[in-house]
């Protein structure tokens, strides 16, 4: 419980200081975390080991679900840009039993995801990045990185807060509206081509959709 409040406090502090890259006032709820990891959790018993990439884990609410689903031989990489969040994640891998049990299978990398290069593609890419806060050109780069890092047949899961882009398109003007429209076009295009399901998570602050996309080539 102390770890939860420490993580919540750090998240709120980073929201105030670095809203553009934090993007929420609270960590993801356990319901959102469960939805983000449901394809990983649905693996058949005895399935081959998998490679998992989490992008923008923050203080680790989704990470906590992932580490509990790892099996022997799985590989789990985390890419996080925020230095304070990296320190929190490192501490959790050292201090929390469920995390430390798989520490040898995990790696934290501090860098922008568009600069990250992997030695092999991933079976699951799970992203908590606040895409609506970024310039449209950066969103395009990030989306390209998602699919570059995903193996053929692999699943990308990411969330977005409900109705944010439609509301912003109605309430904003000029360059800001053009930015939101372009982001919407970029991500809607990927969803049209690759989406396999969408979950609605109402018990979250704010409520969110989780988009699940499969790489087809």
From TrEMBL:
Keywords: Methyltransferase, Transferase. The keyword Methyltransferase applies. It comes from the Bacteria. Gene3D superfamilies: Vaccinia Virus protein VP39 (3.40.50.150). SUPFAM superfamilies: S-adenosyl-L-methionine-dependent methyltransferases. The keyword Transferase applies. Residues 52-154 form the Methyltransferase domain. One of its GO terms (molecular function) is methyltransferase activity. GO terms for biological process: methylation. InterPro entries: Methyltransf_25, SAM-dependent_MTases_sf. This is SAM-dependent methyltransferase. It comes from Planctomyces bekefii.
